[in-house]
């Protein structure tokens, strides 16, 4: 029963993905500017024959719907076209950069959850206490703060003033990490390279906090408000009347219910995380997908931009799909 | 917890025209002001927002320096209270020797215009479509809803960056890119409310009295929804301002010669080691404005629409 | 007071207040009660008279900012007020259990019903043994599950095996209340506190639940303190009735005496305001006026403003509980003399 419902959700996500692919494709093709000019670097001195060759190579000489058909067919096979500038398959370029981005995103998510859960729970339990007021003011700040500026301030403080944390890149050059998967934490653990592991973790802290701060603020607020509502409910009195300790009441009976709205907001926040990723990678010179997209935009390398935007949108749809599925386990009342 | 409860929906549902509603607004203006007073944070927030608006309007009058051209001899003058600082440039100067305070004051124009216009037009488009589709349903509803679902599959910033990448920088383009996705949230809010209000008794009563459906939408239902839209709109202005600054920071928003906070922060990033103030102060200006808007929005939500539960 | 031998619970001078903006709400004031082991006592009164507060105070489950300001709660000779947090947690659910008014909102929506009952067993270590973390506790869980199934069977939940792992919203209202009773009884408590257990249920289910509680009282000798606003339910179920008004007991005595010979005008009012089958509507006499403001109680009898028999003396000072009959105490200076009141007919009392 549950399995068929999950399958239904997965199938419902497919047309959205198709729509995303078509939208991205149309956007790229309908904007002014001849891709061939970009590929040639506006240098001139290129023969007509070469231009024609390039046109047919990139299928630019065919009608729009044929191009779309070819594009979609290729996309299903994992082929997102060729980069105009780097002359590599877009898929290859994206996959190369993806581990860095995923590692940072996971670090940010972990940091935000580690901050948000204790703060959200504590400020609900001790409502109106100094702790509550301070953390709610802090979360307001987190929501209102532009992440790129926060990143710069962190760099100024911890990198420039205190010199305690690295502010650029993923790892120190002298860590000698042999790269296997591209996930540096994983790589340094399996190769037993402690120096590289510590260096990687240090490099993750500032960008992770920058990216995770706003998430933490939003998630903490949701946890707090739902915990407040739940702690007033009858079933909390029942749990106490059974003889459960106060912490058990809060962490088992209340938190388990508060997870339902919290997971929803975490799913939505993945979108913010992905967008913030471009900004934070730019600020911290993080060699990930986001930074590649930003430079691709300036180089007018449209296939690469298009491919990356699709990957982002796809990730977002997947994240919400996972949330939907998690929901069926968290909330016994769920009926789709 | 409030001593005077805000006007509740059931009473409103008995009220049959905008005119009566307006009168009621006047009468409740006193109550509203009172509510504002017992929400001191909202009061402080709105005062700060008004100060920013005044500063933006009066920027040419209250500044003495040129925001776009500076004297290179003055470059990287530190803030007045630092060593080598001067009160001629209270917050210091940037790499081109332009006064930072002047540029920050002028920069508030961009932020406020982009935030205000983008949210305003988003509300217009979103509410109109939402009201029509929510009331009439039918083909238009399924088309627009599908389109909205499609747009929701893109994270907002990614979408805006993507659009700006294709259409190029510029203030009009930027506002268009923000509206392109911004209307969806208002559309969904109004459509949902419209669908639930539509089946209530007062709408049935209006129908029985022979009211046309368009006037039912405008005169009967919209007054009941408008508060939610207003509150959501206020909260979204802050987001739009941050979005604009982020795009300008990446070089995709406002062209660099126009003073905008995002691009000012970006330009200061290159000189972080020698001139910390160039990035710091525009960021603080931005932070305070967005904070003030969000506080006002939260306060308005408590006052106008305690039912509404918006997160994020 | 009624039977001091074999006392299970004795409440002495209990006062509970809720601070509010308008002042301190004295929800319960100077309340004393004695409950003998195996007895069935009912607290009866209108909503807001503090009867539920008494139950919550006994287990120290008052919602903040409510707090006990005075009094002793002697359970088996121990003062529950003086127990440390850990000790009172050991009493809750094991020695004293509670069932609630609205079973749907009282059961946690995200845990299976059977597991919620089993949690009580685990909390009080009913099956002795090592506390292994989940999932290493298979054997113990199995033993506990069997006890739960037996308890579910006993309270009349059909096919408990199938119902063990389904969620509260999949139960009917009556089944939910039975599950709550099973939860309360699974550790074999000596005292069961029931906070309007039948109010939210259909009338036919109400009778079943009352029968079930009576059976439990007889089979296990479980003492029951029930709160209800329905004198009929109280008369049916209890051996002792305490009528509460504005945080105080106004009349207490054996159930039959209270229902047949009420002395306090308020008790009489409660009896005549219940509609009965076959009666015409105008014969139902509501009590005029409203429950008094608990922040500003009159200095004298709290019921005096609504009382048809009130004299000036009633409003002058606090009225003590007065013994009017064997085992019956009444807080009234003008106790109703039923035999001389022409408007009073005994036929008006109809049992459910």
Helices and strands in order:
The complex is a heterotrimer of chains A (336), B (312) and C (352).
Chain A: H1 2-30, H2 35-40, H3 48-57, H4 64-76, H5 90-125, H6 130-144, H7 147-161, H8 184-190, H9 194-231, H10 234-242, H11 246-283, H12 289-298, H13 302-330
Chain B: H1 9-12, H2 18-38, H3 40-62, H4 100-136, H5 138-152, H6 156-167, H7 171-198, H8 201-208, H9 213-250, H10 261-269, H11 277-304
Chain C: E1 7-20, E2 23-36, E3 40-44, H1 51-58, E4 67-75, E5 78-79, H2 85-91, E6 96-99, H3 103-106, H4 113-123, H5 138-154, H6 160-163, H7 173-185, E7 191-195, H8 203-220, E8 223-228, H9 231-237, E9 240-245, E10 248-254, H10 255-260, H11 265-272, E11 322-325, E12 328-330
Parallel strand pairs in C: 3-8, 3-9, 6-7, 7-8
Antiparallel strand pairs in C: 1-2, 1-4, 4-5, 9-10, 10-12, 11-12
Helix pairs in contact in C: 4-5, 4-7, 5-7
Descriptive account of the structure:
The complex is a heterotrimer of chains A (336), B (312) and C (352). Chain A contains 13 helices and no strands. Chain A has 336 residues and is mostly helical. Chain A has one domain: MetI-like (MetI-like fold, Orthogonal Bundle), CATH 1.10.3720.10. In chain A, helix 5 packs antiparallel against helix 11 and helix 10 packs across helix 11. Chain B has a single domain, classed as MetI-like (MetI-like fold, Orthogonal Bundle). With 312 residues, chain B is an all-alpha fold. Helix content of chain B is 71%, strand content 0%. The N terminus and C terminus of chain B are likely disordered. By secondary structure, chain C is an alpha/beta fold. In chain C, 29% of the residues lie in helices and 22% in strands. In chain C, strand 7, helix 8 and strand 8 form a beta-alpha-beta unit. In chain C, helix 4 packs across helix 5, helix 4 runs parallel beside helix 7 and helix 5 packs across helix 7. The two termini of chain C are 29 Å apart.
Concise summary:
The complex is a heterotrimer of chains A (336), B (312) and C (352). By secondary structure, chain A is mostly helical.
């Amino acid at each position: 029963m549950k399995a068929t419902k999950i399958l239904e959700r997965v199938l419902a996500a497919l047309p959205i993905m198709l729509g995303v692919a078509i939208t991205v494709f149309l956007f790229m093709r309908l904007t002014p500017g001849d891709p061939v000019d970009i590929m040639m670097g506006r240098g001139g001195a290129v023969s007509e024959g070469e231009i024609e060759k390039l046109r047919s190579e990139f299928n630019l000489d065919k009608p729009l719907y044929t191009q779309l058909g070819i594009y979609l067919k290729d996309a299903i096979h994992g082929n997102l076209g060729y980069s105009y500038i780097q002359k590599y398959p877009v898929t290859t370029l994206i996959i190369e950069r993806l581990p860095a981005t995923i590692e940072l995103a996971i670090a940010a998510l972990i940091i935000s959850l580690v901050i948000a859960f204790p703060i959200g729970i504590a400020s609900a339990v001790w409502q109106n206490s100094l702790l509550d007021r301070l953390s709610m003011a802090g979360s307001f700040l987190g929501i209102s703060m532009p992440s790129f500026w926060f990143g710069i301030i962190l760099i100024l403080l911890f990198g420039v003033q205190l010199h305690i944390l690295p502010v650029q890149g993923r790892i120190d050059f002298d860590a000698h990490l042999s790269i296997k998967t591209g996930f540096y934490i994983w790589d340094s653990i399996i190769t037993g390279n402690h120096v590289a592991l510590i260096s990687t973790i240090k490099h993750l802290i500032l960008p992770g906090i920058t990216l995770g701060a706003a998430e933490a603020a939003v998630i903490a607020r949701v946890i707090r408000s739902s915990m407040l509502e739940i702690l007033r409910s009858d079933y909390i009195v029942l749990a106490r009347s059974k003889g459960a300790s106060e912490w058990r009441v809060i962490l088992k009976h209340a938190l388990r219910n508060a997870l339902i709205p919290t997971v929803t907001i975490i799913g939505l926040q993945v979108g913010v995380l992905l967008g913030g990723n471009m900004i934070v990678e730019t600020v911290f010179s993080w060699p990930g997908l986001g930074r590649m997209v930003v430079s691709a935009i300036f180089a007018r390398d449209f296939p690469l931009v298009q491919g990356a935007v699709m990957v982002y949108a796809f990730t977002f749809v997947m994240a919400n799909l996972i949330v939907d599925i998690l929901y069926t386990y968290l909330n016994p009342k769920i009926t789709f | 917890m409030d001593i005077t409860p805000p006007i509740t929906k059931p009473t409103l549902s008995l009220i049959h025209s905008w005119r009566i509603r307006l009168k009621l607004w006047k009468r409740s203006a006193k109550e509203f002001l009172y509510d504002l007073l017992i929400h001191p944070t909202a009061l402080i927030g709105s005062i700060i927002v008004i100060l920013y608006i005044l500063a933006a309007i009066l920027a040419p009058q209250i500044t003495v320096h040129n925001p776009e051209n500076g004297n290179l001899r003055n470059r990287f003058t530190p803030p007045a209270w630092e060593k080598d600082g001067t009160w001629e440039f209270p917050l210091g100067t940037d790499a081109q020797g332009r006064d930072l305070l002047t540029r920050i004051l002028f920069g508030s124009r961009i932020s406020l215009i982009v935030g205000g216009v983008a949210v305003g037009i988003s509300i217009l488009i979103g509410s109109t479509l939402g009201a029509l589709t929510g009331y009439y349903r039918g083909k238009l509803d399924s088309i627009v809803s599908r389109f909205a679902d499609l747009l929701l599959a893109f994270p907002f910033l990614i979408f805006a960056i993507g659009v700006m990448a294709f259409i190029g920088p510029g203030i009009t383009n930027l506002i268009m890119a923000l509206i392109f996705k911004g209307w969806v949230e208002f559309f969904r809010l109004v459509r949902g409310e419209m669908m639930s209000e539509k089946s209530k008794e007062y709408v049935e009563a209006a129908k029985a009295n022979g009211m046309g459906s368009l006037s039912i939408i405008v005169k009967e239902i919209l007054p009941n929804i408008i508060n939610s839209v207003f509150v959501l709109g206020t909260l979204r202005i802050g987001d739009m301002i941050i979005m604009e600054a982020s795009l300008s920071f990446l070089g995709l928003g406002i062209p660099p010669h126009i003073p905008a906070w995002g691009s000012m922060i970006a330009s200061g990033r290159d000189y972080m080691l020698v001139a910390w103030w160039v990035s710091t102060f525009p960021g603080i200006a931005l932070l305070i404005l967005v904070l003030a808007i969000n506080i006002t929005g939260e306060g308005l939500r408590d006052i106008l629409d305690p039912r509404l539960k918006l997160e994020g | 007071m009624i039977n001091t031998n074999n006392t299970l619970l004795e409440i002495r001078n209990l006062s509970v207040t809720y601070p509010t903006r308008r002042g301190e709400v004295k929800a319960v004031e100077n309340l004393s009660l004695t409950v003998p082991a195996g007895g069935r006592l009912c607290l009866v009164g209108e909503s807001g008279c503090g009867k539920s507060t008494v139950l919550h105070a006994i287990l120290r489950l008052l919602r903040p900012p409510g707090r006990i300001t005075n009094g002793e709660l002697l359970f088996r000779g121990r003062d529950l007020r003086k127990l440390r947090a850990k000790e009172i947690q050991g009493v809750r659910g094991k020695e004293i259990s509670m069932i609630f008014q609205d079973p749907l909102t009282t059961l946690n929506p995200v845990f299976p019903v059977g597991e919620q009952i089993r949690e009580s067993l685990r909390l009080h270590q009913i099956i002795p043994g090592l506390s292994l973390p989940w999932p290493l506790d298979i054997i113990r869980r199995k033993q506990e599950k069997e006890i739960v199934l037996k308890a579910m069977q006993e309270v009349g939940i059909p096919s408990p095996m199938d119902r063990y792992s389904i969620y509260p919203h999949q139960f009917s209202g009556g089944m939910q209340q039975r599950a709550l009773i099973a939860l309360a009884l699974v550790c074999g408590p000596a005292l069961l506190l029931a906070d309007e257990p039948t109010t939210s249920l259909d009338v036919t289910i109400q009778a079943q639940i009352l029968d079930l509680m009576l059976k439990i009282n007889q089979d296990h000798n479980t003492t029951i303190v029930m709160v209800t606003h329905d004198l009929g339910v109280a008369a049916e179920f209890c051996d002792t009735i305490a009528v509460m008004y504005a945080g105080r007991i106004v009349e207490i005595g054996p159930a039959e005496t209270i229902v047949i010979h009420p002395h306090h005008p308020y008790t009489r009012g409660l009896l005549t305001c219940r509609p009965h089958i076959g009666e015409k509507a105008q014969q139902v006499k509501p009590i005029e006026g409203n429950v008094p403001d608990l922040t500003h109680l009159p200095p004298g009898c709290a019921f005096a403003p609504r009382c048809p028999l009130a004299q000036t003396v009633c409003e002058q000072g606090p009225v003590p509980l007065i013994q009017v009959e064997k085992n019956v105490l009444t807080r009234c200076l003008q106790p109703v003399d039923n035999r001389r009141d022409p408007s009073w007919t005994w036929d008006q009392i109809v049992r459910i």
